[in-house]
Amino acid sequence: MSIDRAKALLASTDVTDNRNGAALIINAGATSANVPEILNQGIINLLLPKLRSDNSDLVMKACWAVNNLCVHEKSRDAIFNGGVLEYMPAVLRHTDPEVLKKAAWALTNISRSEKAQKEMVRHGTFKSLITLLTGSNDDVRGAILQPLCNLVLDAENQNEFLRQGGIQATTQLLSSRDEKSRELAVTLISFVTTNHDSVRNVLVDAGVFRPLKNLVEGAGTPKEQEYALNALVNISLSDQGEVAVADQDVLPAVVGLLSSSQPKLRQQAAMLLSNLLTNKKVREKIRYVGWVDPVLDIAKGDDPGLLQQILRVMINVAFDGHCRALLVKRQGEKIVHEMTKRVSDPTVQSLATTALKNLSVPVATDIQSEVEEALRSGKALNRIAPPEARRKAAIDDLAALDDLVGDISRGKREHKVSGAGSATSDSTASRPAPSALRSVEPVTKKSNAMDEIVFDLAPPPRAPPGGGKPSAPPPAKSTPPAKGRDALDDLLNDLPPPRSQKKANLDDIDALLAGTGSSSKSAPPPPPPANRADDLDALLSDIPRKSNTPKKNVATDDIDDLLSNLDKPRGKPAANDDIDSLLAGVGSAPAGGRRDEIDDLLSGIDGGGSKKSGMDAIDDLLADLTS
Questions:
Q1: Torsion angle defined by CA atoms of residues 48, 53, 55 and 57, in that order, rounded to the nearest 10 degrees
Q2: Segments of 350-445 assigned E as strands
Q3: 457: Cβ–Cβ under 8 A, 6 or more apart, which residues?
Q4: Angle between helices 222-235 and 197-205 (to 10 degrees)
C-alpha cells in the first residue's frame, strides 16, 4: 500500500526517498479515509522532522503534506500535538517562494485552532509571518495573509499584530496590484478592527481611509467592497475613527449602498450610517444627500436584522430637525407604525417605539419651510445609484473568495438607545464577525504534476495517486474585547458589553423623547459541512482514452495527460490541457449551456462500469483540491 511505502521512504536516510515519501502523503493525506492508517503508522513523527531539512524541495513537500493532513481535525490535532510549530519559524526563513507558500497553506489550517492561534505568537511564527508581508513576491504575500487573518481573530493577537508592525504593512497592501493580496489585506483589516480602539486609531494614522474609500466606491472586487465597508463599520466605533470616516466624504457612496441589490451591503451601509449619525456634523452633512427614500424603502421590508439597523439610522438621524422633518413629510411615522404590526421581532418592536417617539417631536416652522422647498425642488430626494464593484475576482478558478475568507456571520455588540435627558436601556446592534479561514489551495497544481512530485519513485505503487455604534445620541460608544471563538470553523459571537462610553453633543436634541430597547441574542449559522471525496487521480484514473489519439512521450499519470483526451466541444478550438484552463469555465454558464463545463468534461467517469451517483459533481471532484 502507498502508506506502507511512504513510511519506508520517510524512514530512509536518503533525501530522494524522503521526497517521494512526502509526495505519497500529499496524496494519501488529502482523503479523510486514509487518516486513521496514517496516524496508526506513525507517519507524523516521521514527516515533521523533514521540515528541518536543508533540501528545499523536501521541506516544500513536507509542508504540503502537513497542509493536506491538517484539513482533517484528527490529523490536525495530532500534527499540532506533535510540535509542528517548533519547526515553523525556521521554515519561514527559507527564501524559496514555493516553500513559503506551502508553509502558509499549512499554517492557515493549523491556525483554525484557538489554541494554535496563541501558540503561534509564543513560538515566533506570528512575527515571522508579519515580516514576510514586506517581501517583494506577490504570491508569497497573498499566501501569508491567509494564516494572519486567522491569527488576528484572537483579541490579544490583534494588539500583538499592531506591536509587530503588521498594521503598516497590511495598509500598504490595500493598494497592491495583486488582486489576491489586496482582497486578503482588506479582509484582515476588517478582522483586526473588531476589538481595540488602539488598532483602529493606528490604522487611521497609517492612511487606511483613502484605499478603503476607493474600495467602498467600487474600485475593486465585490468582496473587497464588502470587507472595506465592514472595516469602516468597525473603525467608526472609535472616536478618532468616527471623525476620520466622516471627513472622508464617503457618505454619498454609503447612502447609495442602501439601494444595493446585495442584502449584506445594505445592512452594513445601515450599520455604518447609524454609527456616523451619532455625530452632529454628519447629521447636518447628510440632510440633502438623498437618503430618505432608500431608508424608507428598507423600512417597508420584512428582514428583522436589516430593520433593526435601519431603525437605528432613523433614530439617530431624527436628532436633526431637518432630517426629522424629511422623514415625517415622507410618511416615515406611518411606515414605522405599519412595521410594528407586520414584524414581531422584539428588538424591532423596541427600536420602532423609540423611532416613533423621536419622530413625534415638533419641528420649528422655519426648518419646515426649508424642507418643503427642498422637496419641491427635488433636492432632498435625488437618489444615488449604488456603486458597483468594477473588477471581477480573479481567484475563483478553484474556489470563490467566500471559501478563502469564510462566511460572515452576525456577532452582537451592546449599545445604548436613548433620548435626551432620560434613562437609557440596553439594546443590541449586530455587525459581522469573522470566521476562521481554511486553506483552499489545490492539493496538486499544474506546476507540480504528479510526475514531478514522484519523478524518481520506481516502480510507483499501484495505488490511486492524486495528489451601531451605538445608536441614538447620546451614544454609548463601545470598544468590546473579544471573548474568544468557538474552535475551528465556529464563528465569533457573544461579544461582551462595552468598556467605555462617550457623551454626545446634545445641543439639538434636548426636546427629544426617550426610547427603550431590549436585548436579543441569536446563534450564528452553523459552518458549512466539510466535503469528502476521493482524490483527483483516483477519480480520473478510469477515464477512457480515444483509440486514435497519438501516444505521447510523457508519463501517463500526469494530470495534464489524464485530461488531455477528454472530448472537446464541437466547433471550438481544443481547450488548454492544464487543469486551470479546463476548469476556467466552471460556474460561468447556465445549466445546459457550455459543452466544456465540468459535468460534460468529466461525464466519462463511471468507476469501471457501475454508475455512481454524484461522482461528477464539482464539490466531490475538487473537495481535496480546495481543502
A1: 10
A2: 409-417, 425-433
A3: 9, 20, 23, 24
A4: 120
- Asked whether the beta carbons of 320 and 288 are under 8 A apart, the reply is no
How far, in Å, CA of 27 to CA of 593, rounded? 33
Average pLDDT over residues 96-122: 94
Q: What is the pLDDT of residue 134?
A: 87
Cis peptide before 362 (omega within 30 of 0): no
Structural domains in the chain plus CATH codes: 207-530 (1.25.10.10), 534-540+551-627 (no CATH)
**Contact at 8 Å (CB) between 78 and 118?**
no
Q: Which of 134, 30, 23, 4 is nearest to 536 (CA)?
A: 30
In this structure, is the dihedral angle defined by the CA atoms of residues 202, 208, 213 and 215, taken in order, positive or negative?
negative
Give the model confidence (pLDDT) of 21-55 as tens digits: 999 999 999 999 999 999 999 999 999 999 999 99
Q: Which cell numbers in the block locate residue 414?
A: 451592546
Q: Is the pLDDT reported for residue 20 higher than 90?
A: yes
C-alpha–C-alpha distance, residues 113 and 119, integer Å: 10
The dihedral built from the CA positions of residue 113, 119, 121 and 126, taken in this order, carries a sign that is negative
Distance of alpha carbon 71 from the chain centroid: 18
Q: Among 384, 446, 438, 380, which residue's Cα sits nearest to residue 407? A: 438
Cell 471623525 -> residue: 243
Amino acid letter, residue 595: R
**Residue 222 corresponds to which amino acid?**
P
Gyration radius (Cα) of the chain, Å: 28
426, β-bridge pairs = 416
The answer to whether residues 263 and 226 touch, using CB atoms and an 8 Å cutoff, is no
Angle, nearest 10°, between helix axes 114-122 and 138-151?
120
- pLDDT score recorded for residue 95: 93
Cα separation, 109 vs 440, in Å, equals 9
**CA-to-CA distance for 231 and 224, rounded, in angstroms?**
10
Three-point CA angle 232, 390, 143, nearest 5° = 65
The answer to whether residues 321 and 363 touch, using CB atoms and an 8 Å cutoff, is: yes
- Alpha-carbon distance of 365 to 375, in angstroms, equals 15
CA 404 – CA 440 distance, rounded (Å): 6
What is the C-alpha to C-alpha distance for residues 217 and 252, in angstroms, rounded to an integer?
9
Would you state the cell numbers that stand for residue 39, as one nine-digit string? 496516524
Burial 124-157 (b: 16+ CB within 10 A, else e): ebbbbbbbbbeeeebebbbbbbbbbbbbbbbbbb
